[in-house]
Design a protein that fits this description.
single chain, 283 residues, alpha+beta, 4-stranded mixed beta sheet, 7 helices, 13 strands, 42% helix, 21% strand, globular
Length: 283
């Protein structure tokens, strides 16, 4: 926009200079042309400054609104008392037999159900964004989809290659059911998850199916369109429903067990190893 304004001003001034040269022997015309050139140049500078000032004010206003929203969210979190132990009665849904690799969308169905949104896991499986990149091996390197971009592989059968999906596409899908209410806790500390749990809200997470930190031998590098991604075939998703000083409790779509428990320290290490991915909702 600024470049276009500059070009317009330069062209206008150039035209008046040419007219001035053409009519410089005519005192009256040359005077009028000079006057108009000065007026237009001055008006253009004034208009440019006004637009730029307005743009800066608008950007500042947007930043202020965002800062207010962040502060409001922090204030809301601060008034929630962190309990020593929590156990939430949330829906439990089993992913089998329909979705052998559908733990993420099945866990999302549990999370949405806890928020009062009844949606079938099969509908979520159909709606989740997919990365359709086929699996190939070139020079010993695996080329496949990116779980940060969409579900990778076949969700419905182990007879074809596949893996799962990470929090970004799940967050996008969840927001279509709970607009402006989803909360992304990914990248936070494990203690931050205790805030919504203490408020009666379960948490969707990505861990592994052994609920502990895995050795490096369980992981492999995939080459995707966006770059390298480190993945494990043990990747899993559960709905955290509670905790105490020794255990974390969760609804497990793999087994269909409600409030299954695992040592909290091992579970936390598993969660961190898988990228500290977590989602919940606000009221």
């Amino acid at each position: 926009m600024e470049t276009l304004q500059f070009i317009s001003i330069a062209c206008a001034v150039g035209v008046f200079i040419l007219l001035f040269i053409k009519y410089k022997k005519h005192v009256f015309f040359s005077g009028v042309i000079s006057f108009l050139a000065i007026v237009i140049f001055g008006a253009s500078i004034y208009l440019y400054g006004s637009i730029r000032t307005y743009s800066e004010k608008t950007d500042g206003a947007k930043q202020n609104v965002q800062a207010v929203k962040i502060n409001e969210q922090k204030e809301k979190l601060e008034i929630i008392r962190i309990e020593n132990k929590v156990l939430i009665d949330a829906p439990v849904i089993k992913q089998f037999p329909e979705l052998p690799r559908g733990c993420e969308v099945t866990t999302l169905a549990m999370l949405l159900g806890s928020a009062g949104i009844n949606v079938d896991k099969m509908s979520l499986a159909e709606e989740i964004k997919k990365d359709l990149t086929p699996r190939t091996v070139k020079n010993g390197e695996i080329h496949f989809g990116n779980p940060h971009k969409g579900f990778v592989g076949n969700m419905y059968s182990f007879n074809e290659p596949g893996l799962g999906v990470y929090h970004e596409p799940i967050m996008e899908l969840a927001e279509s059911y709970l607009p402006k209410k989803m909360v992304n806790l990914s990248g936070q500390s494990f203690d931050e998850l205790k805030i919504p749990l203490s408020d009666g809200r379960p948490v969707w997470v990505i861990i592994n199916s052994q609920y502990r930190e895995l050795e490096d031998s369980y992981f492999q590098i995939w080459h995707t369109k966006e770059g390298k991604v480190r993945v494990t075939m043990k990747e899993h998703s559960v709905l955290i429903t509670g905790y105490d000083d020794q255990f974390v409790y969760f609804n497990d779509p793999l087994t269909g067990i409600k409030n299954k428990k695992a040592p909290i320290k091992d579970f936390e290490k598993s969660w961190v190893q898988m990228g500290s991915q977590a989602l919940t909702y606000s009221y």
